Amino acid sequence: MAADAQGFPVTRSPAGVARSARAARDLAVLDARVSGCRACPRLVAWREEVARVKRASFRDEDYWGRPVPGLGPADARIAVVGLAPAAHGGNRTGRVFTGDRSGDWIFAALWRAGLASQPTSTHVGDGLELTGVRVAAAVRCAPPDNAPTPAERDTCSPWLARELALLPDLRVAVVLGGFGWTALWPVLAGAGYALPRPRPAFGHGVEVTVSGPRGELTLLGSYHVSQQNTFTGRLTEPMLDAVLARATELAGTGGAHQGESGPPRP
Can you spell out the DSSP letters for 129-177? Predict the structure, then answer.
């Protein structure tokens, strides 16, 4: 497999994504392969254009301008699945949900749930560590207008499938938004989970448990942490906290912090 100038293995086709993902032996290898993916020409062109042009407030920064891998340990019992990186968030910082308003919401909530070491995620190397949770996106490249196509979603699907397969203790998936909800079902079917018919509709607070080769997995729906939802009050902090509290209850992990800005419990 060829590598790019930064040493990431390059994948250029949907078939190549499937092969590369399936052969990744651990999360570190998977993350490197995700970072070199060039299988969706429209997304490659957009993410790289954004990285060249930049936003004025970030003009002195070096943008990541690549697919964004997941974040979190291999022993995670909870997975959080979002939509895609933001053009000037994850596409800039190289860390999922980092550097934008959506990330401010999700990492603060993970901290309040006892799953993150700090309530902020601003850049790689800022000290953030996750415990018991892995955060990923259904599509790994920033898409124009925050809208991946179904074909781009399907091309990216093997990355998510392999990532979840490399979490042997996974018990709960918190799915942010209808796009991620739709993207996850084929992944679960391919992993051998028995899926309900008809497929449950997405909604905030929806809870569905499926059985598979590694036991039960519970899916929890939450409105996405987009500004459209958070600014309008469609999604509030208590609503998001309730979903994560349920996730930690089901997974048997985490421990809430005291308030929104207080110190963690001993």
Answer: -BSSEEEEESS-SPPGGG---HHHHHHHHHHHHHHHHT-TT--EEEEES
